[in-house]
Specification:
Length: 359
């Protein structure tokens, strides 16, 4: 029978070709050892319609027909064996991997289906023979019994051969898997040893480079630290000068503002407001400010009646953004700020400048 293409790949096709070759060899073996049929002995029957010559002629015709069918089957088997042998030879050159468990299951299903088709084909041939020889049922009863026994023996032999072939294939697969695993383990160990050696050499080289770089970094860091300290001292001096200038500007503004009103009352109120900021507000805010050695930040605070802080903005930065943000946060955390009962002082505190120094 022609081999149908399956969707499981080349390994399954090769397996099918191998089993078809085995089936063909078994069929040839049984055909070559089949004992010749015993001569047909016509029975004497009552009311014989055909004479002896007609019986012999019919017998020869049936024997000739059987011989022709046998010859055709042998020719077909020979051609099939030749084609299967060629296909197996070509396919074997390309086979590299043993069937997987899924391919084995697919192969078993396909072989069962093929066996069913072969059985159906044999049954169809037997049925055709039975219909053609319906008039000689009694004469061929013994021959049909022998054919049935031979067919059953052949089927059992094929099943046994199939089981043995599968067991052998499984054994070969296990052996090859074992060899592959050992080879892979050896290769992996060699690769890991080489990789570790390379990593160790790389690590030692990096450590040496790091040591040399560390010495250079220390030298540069010392130089930079000196330059940074000098620049920081200069910047801090400039910040303090700027803060002092702003205080002077603020005092001048308040002085000018006081000169435009009643001298005695206004001056007293502004001084009271400055005292309130220094003695009441600044201590509370500084409780929440962050530590930053030598830092100072000036903020503009806008108040709500009752001491709530409406807004706070940096007017003179400390040079450290994190400290500036901590001062703004400290003012907001300290809210509500102490609020005087005197309405005039409270009026002065609606908007004021506050210098916060680090602890």
């Amino acid at each position: 029978m022609p081999i149908r293409k399956q969707g499981v790949g080349v390994p399954l096709a090769l397996s099918l070709l191998l089993h078809m070759l085995l089936l063909s060899l078994f069929a040839l073996h049984f055909d070559s050892h089949k004992s010749p049929s015993e001569p047909l002995q016509p029975e004497v029957m009552e009311a014989v319609v055909m004479d002896e010559a007609q019986i012999q002629a019919e017998k020869k015709r049936l024997e000739a027909m059987h011989e022709a069918e046998a010859a055709a089957r042998k020719a077909e088997l020979a051609a099939q064996r030749e084609a299967e042998a060629e296909a197996i030879r070509r396919a074997a050159e390309k086979e590299e991997k043993i069937r997987t468990a899924a391919e084995a299951r697919q192969k078993a299903e396909d072989e069962a289906k093929q066996q069913a088709e072969l059985e159906a084909h044999r049954e169809a041939e037997a049925e055709a023979t039975r219909r053609a020889a319906d008039e000689e049922v009694k004469i061929h009863a013994a021959a049909e019994a022998r054919q049935k026994a031979e067919a059953e023996a052949k089927r059992q032999a094929e099943q046994e051969a199939h089981r043995e072939a599968e067991a052998e294939a499984a054994r070969i697969a296990r052996e090859e898997a074992k060899h592959r695993a050992a080879a892979e383990a050896k290769q992996k160990a060699e690769f890991e040893a080489k990789r570790r050696a390379e990593l160790e050499a790389h690590r030692q080289a990096e450590e040496e480079a790091a040591r040399r770089a560390g010495e250079e970094v220390k030298r540069r860091a010392a130089s930079k630290a000196k330059q940074k300290a000098e620049a920081e001292a200069k910047r801090q001096a400039e910040l303090e000068a700027q803060a002092q200038h702003e205080l002077e500007v603020e005092e001048k503004r308040m002085t000018e503002k006081a000169s435009n009103s009643k001298p005695d009352t206004k001056t007293t109120t502004e001084e009271a407001a400055r005292d309130w900021i220094s003695n009441k507000i600044r201590p509370k805010v500084e409780k929440f400010s962050a530590n930053s050695s030598g830092r100072s930040c000036t903020v503009r605070v806008t108040m709500l009646p009752g001491g709530g802080v409406q807004s706070v903005s940096v007017t003179l930065s400390s040079g450290d953004e994190s400290f500036d943000r901590s001062v703004q946060a400290a003012v907001l955390k300290a809210s509500p700020l102490p609020w005087p009962d005197d309405e005039k002082i409270a009026e002065e505190l609606k908007t004021f400048s506050l210098i916060v120094k680090s602890k």
